Amino acid sequence: MEIENQTQIKHFIIVGFPQYSGLQVPLFLTFLLTYLVTLLGNLLIMAVVYSDPRLHTPMYFFLTNLSFIDITSTSVTLPKLLTSFMSAGCSISLPACIVQMYGLVCMMSTEFILLTVMAYDRYVAICNPLRYAIVMNKDACIKLAAGTWMAGLLQPIPHTVLVSRLSFCKSHHVNHFFCDITALLKISCTDTRSIETMTYVFGVLIVIGTFILIIISYIYIISTILKIQSSERRHKAFSTCTSHLAVVIIFSGAICIMYMRPNSKYSENQDKILSLMYIVVTPLLNPIIYSLKNTEFRKAFQRVQEQKVRKRI
């Protein structure tokens, strides 16, 4: 039958993890708890930074942006995953599926660029401390954040437009726990080579490009840290750098493996696990890595708590 005569699918079923059908309830509770902890951790960061003037610095300003990204990216995907655990799949309309895909790609692109901006902030703070207040002034931070969000919002538009024009007639089951672009291409009956090519191009520009910039920043940072005489200052600087770099490697590695390879090498079960790394694990770890293990943040949290107690008294 010709593609023109085939029925165009308007609704999809998000498959989720059917191979673990006997563990639906434990998995539902696990991911629900993970989602709630992620929301609480990132909201806590935003609240404490907003409440304590001592944290009104460029590093924590960008950190609140990262927390907002983590809240949004998990909220775009995890509710559907939770629903799929409690039923035989989860229905989603084609427009809602496209919006979900756009939202997630938007947040991923924004996070890549923001992590690069955060690396630049650390570069200026460690390599040019005397000029830090001048270079990373309030206007510069606002412009960097605005540029980051603008680039993140615009980057997914070409993918979204092309995917929205595809015909889906092979199956109405999306073998993933969200509307992943690769999973959608697998069930399309339209030629998807142009979208695959665009994915590679944007992958090189966003993923590889930002990763190279981060590595260059850290080459200068580590070189400067090794010259610091005080072992305490050196340890503090290394601690900040390794935390940030660990998140970059986990986040970038999973996405590179997923999206920057031919569609013919698509492995459904493997990609679901890799997706959990940047959709579930990274947003959960970010509050711990960046703030909850940070002495300065813990002190700020204690000050906020003490202020609340005084107000009650």
Keywords:
Rhopdopsin 7-helix transmembrane proteins, mainly alpha, three-stranded mixed β-sheet, 73% helix, 3 strands, 313 residues, 11 helices, single chain, 3% strand
Could you say what the CATH topology is called?
Rhopdopsin 7-helix transmembrane proteins
CATH architecture: Up-down Bundle
- How much helicity do the residues have? over 70%
The tally of helices reads: 11
Fraction in beta strands: under 5%
Q: Return the domain count.
A: 1
> Could you give the order of the helices and strands?
EHHEHHHHEHHHHH
Oligomer: single chain
Give the tally of β-strands: 3
End-to-end C-alpha gap: 76 Å
Q: Detail the poorly predicted runs.
A: 1-6
Q: What is the 3D form?
A: globular
Mean pLDDT: 83
CATH hierarchy class name? Mainly Alpha
Mind describing the biggest β-sheet? 3 strands, mixed
Rounded to an integer, what's the Rg over CA atoms?
22 Å
Structural class: mainly alpha
Task: Write up what this structure looks like.
With 313 residues, the protein is mainly α. The chain contains eleven helices and three strands; from the N terminus they run βααβααααβααααα. It has helices spanning 24-51, 58-85, 94-127, 132-135, 138-154, 157-164, 181-186, 193-225, 231-259, 268-292, 295-312; strands at 11-14, 90-93, 173-174. Helix 2 (58-85) packs antiparallel against helix 10 (268-292), helix 3 runs antiparallel to helix 5 (138-154) and helix 3 runs antiparallel to helix 6. The protein is globular, with a radius of gyration of 22 Å. The termini are far apart. The model is unreliable at 1-6 (pLDDT under 50).
